Amino acid sequence: MDKKIISTGAFFGMLAIIFGAFGAHALKKVLAVEELTTFETGVKYQMYHALFLLFIGLTSQLSEKAKKTIYYLVVTGVIFFSGSIYGLATNKLSSFDFKTIGFITPIGGLLLILAWGILLVNLLKKKS
Q1: How many angstroms separate the CA atoms of 91 and 93, rounded?
Q2: 30, 36, 82, 89: least CB-packed within 10 angstroms?
Q3: Distance separating alpha carbons of residues 44 and 105, to the nearest angstrom
Q4: DSSP designation for 93
Q5: Where are the transmembrane segments (predicted)?
Q6: In the predicted model, what is the mean pLDDT of the chain?
Q7: CB 42 within 8 A of CB 81
């Protein structure tokens, strides 16, 4: 499971860099400042959680069950949160109206919060 978690973290990190560069260069010409800022928020949260996954995959402080739960919460959370933010920020560039699925943004955020909460609870329960 650790290899899968670390690989996913590396993949999310790589994509965050690609999306960040795409936003800074290509989208800068076609999006308003507010839309670019929104897009950058998606990139930041994706990168934060890429690093989070790397930590989870490398730590020995968590059980496999906790790692697996955190992994699935983070992956789904990043796709929902950052993915929907990317769509919402670039909404005017697409024929699909991402506002119709905007409700998944806070669901993704909640999943990310739960992942961090599971980390906290597991670390607090752990005996020294």
Answers
A1: 5
A2: 30
A3: 15
A4: G
A5: 5-27, 47-63, 70-89, 101-124
A6: 95
A7: yes
Q: Which amino acid is at 76?
A: T
Nearest alpha carbon to residue 30 among 39, 42, 17, 43: 39
Q: Read off the pLDDT of residues 30-68 as tens digits, 9 standing for 90 and up.
A: 999 999 999 999 999 999 999 999 999 999 999 999 999
Query: What is the distance between the alpha carbons of residues 121 and 105, in angstroms, rounded to a whole number?
Result: 24
Q: Which single residue is written with the structure tokens 């949160």?
A: 81
Is residue 46 exposed (0-12), middle (13-18) or buried (19+ Cβ within 10 Å)? buried
| Amino acid identity for residue 113 in this structure | I
What pLDDT score does 127 carry?
79
Q: Which of 93-102, 108-117, 118-127 has the highest mean pLDDT?
A: 108-117
Paired tokens of 127: 């005996």
Q: List alpha helices for 1-128, DSSP H.
A: 2-25, 33-58, 64-89, 104-125
| C-alpha to C-alpha distances, 16 to 10, 23, 47, 51, nearest whole angstrom | 10, 10, 6, 11
Length of the chain equals 128
For the chain, domain boundaries: 2-125
